[in-house]
């Protein structure tokens, strides 16, 4: 079996080779990027540029309002709109293949050498340049590791205050403010080291990431919470947001998936499904679990993916009601199957 750390070493060697030659590196965070994806991508791109590479972060959409407080995002290039530069190396960040990149996928695939830095579950044997550690708290944790290793190797400082805020934002959000089970001594040490080296207003960062809201957001939250229905004797909770509900409140839908985690706090809930209708009629589903319910496996059955306790998928060509009924049935069966399995153990 290939060790993930070996993939990191191969990536480091390649980056150093490219740096010597002003090589072109493209970083591709997943579609609808979050703080982790963008924090890792921009931090790596800054570090790679300091080494001598030409580095570009290519994204599918402009920065959502909820992340506009993050520094360093002016370097993002939105594709299509911007050209696809002739990259020597393209790296998938916080995802591992072109299917999570939308239209940028073709640009990613056009690079002669491709790799990935990710912490999502991977079914296949990773390629030589795919550094995938599902037990890592976040891709920002891996980006920290890589930049740290580059610093040690070169004996010069690479971290800067912008990277510190970006990486902390990625680690903080992917660990639910250091509360999920993926919080490890390592990511706490990384956070400590960033706080030691740079002056960071943690209170402000937490406010920007978690608390800043608007009356419209509070209203849409109320609307969505009032749709919660119980399935499987209340062990599964399903909530939905139609386009009409969103339009009515004039609220952007960029951080609704957080509400799924909030719903999960209901006592006795084993799993939560939050269905959000997008403008094009697709239904994006956030899956959260508190139990044996394997969110990634469940989402995988509908073409999605993610982690054990948090995953997502998109349903196409289905009305909200239809989707809710289908998912009620399927999730109940999914929960029953894992409950009876764990009862046997
Ligand atoms: Mn992540």
Name the features.
inorganic pyrophosphatase (n-terminal core); alpha/beta; 43% helix; binds manganese (II) ion; 345 residues; six-stranded mixed beta sheet; Diaminopimelate Epimerase, Chain A, domain 1
Structure, explained:
The structure is a single chain. With 345 residues, the chain is α/β, with parallel strands linked by helices. The protein contains twelve helices and twelve strands. The chain has a six-stranded parallel sheet with strand order 3-2-1-4-5-6. Strands 7-8-9-10-12-11 form a six-stranded mixed sheet, sandwiched between helices. Helix 2 runs parallel beside helix 4 and helix 5 (161-174) runs antiparallel to helix 6 (185-197). The longest helix is centred in the last third of the chain and has 25 residues, at 320-344. The radius of gyration is 20 Å and the shape is globular. Manganese (II) ion is lined by residues 36, 94, 119, 138-139, 174.
Which SSEs are present, and which pair or pack?
Elements: H1 4-20, E1 24-29, H2 35-51, E2 54-59, E3 77-78, E4 89-93, H3 105-110, E5 113-118, E6 130-132, H4 139-154, H5 161-174, H6 185-197, H7 202-211, H8 215-225, E7 229-231, E8 236-241, H9 243-249, H10 257-263, E9 271-277, E10 283-289, H11 295-300, E11 305-306, E12 310-315, H12 320-344
Parallel strand pairs: 1-2, 1-4, 2-3, 4-5, 5-6, 8-9
Antiparallel strand pairs: 7-8, 9-10, 10-12, 11-12
Helix pairs in contact: 2-4, 2-5, 4-5, 5-6
The structure holds manganese (II) ion.
């Amino acid at each position: 079996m290939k060790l993930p750390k070996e993939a990191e070493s191969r990536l480091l060697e390649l980056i150093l080779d490219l740096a010597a030659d002003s090589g072109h590196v493209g970083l591709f965070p997943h579609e609808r990027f979050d703080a982790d994806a963008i924090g890792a991508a921009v931090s790596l791109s800054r570090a790679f540029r300091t080494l001598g590479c030409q580095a570009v972060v290519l994204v599918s959409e402009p920065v959502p309002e909820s992340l506009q407080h993050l520094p360093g995002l002016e370097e993002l290039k939105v594709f299509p709109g911007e050209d696809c530069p002739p990259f020597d190396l393209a790296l998938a960040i916080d995802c591992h293949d072109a299917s999570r990149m939308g239209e940028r996928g073709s640009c990613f695939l056009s690079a002669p050498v491709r790799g990935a830095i990710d912490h999502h579950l991977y079914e296949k044997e990773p390629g030589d340049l795919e550094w995938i550690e599902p037990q890592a708290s976040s891709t920002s944790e891996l980006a920290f590791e890589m930049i740290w290793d580059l610093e040690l190797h070169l004996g010069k400082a690479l971290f800067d205050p912008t990277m510190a805020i970006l990486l902390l934002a990625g680690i903080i959000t992917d660990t639910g403010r250091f509360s999920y089970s993926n919080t490890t001594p390592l990511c706490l040490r990384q956070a400590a080291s960033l706080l030691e080296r740079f002056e960071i207003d943690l209170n402000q960062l937490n406010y920007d990431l978690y608390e800043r809201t608007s009356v419209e957001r509070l209203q849409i939250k109320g609307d969505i919470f009032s749709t919660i229905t119980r399935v499987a004797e209340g062990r599964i909770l399903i909530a939905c947001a139609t386009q009409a509900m969103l339009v009515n409140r004039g609220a952007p839908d960029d951080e609704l998936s957080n509400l799924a985690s909030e719903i999960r706090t209901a006592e006795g809930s084993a799993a939560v499904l939050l269905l959000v209708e997008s403008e094009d009629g697709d239904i994006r589903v956030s899956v959260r679990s508190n139990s044996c319910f394997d969110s990634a496996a469940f989402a995988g059955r509908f073409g999605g993916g993610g982690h054990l306790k948090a995953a997502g998928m998109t349903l196409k060509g289905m009305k909200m009601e239809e989707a809710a009924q289908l998912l009620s049935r399927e999730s109940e069966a999914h929960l029953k199957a894992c409950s009876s399995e764990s009862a046997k153990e």
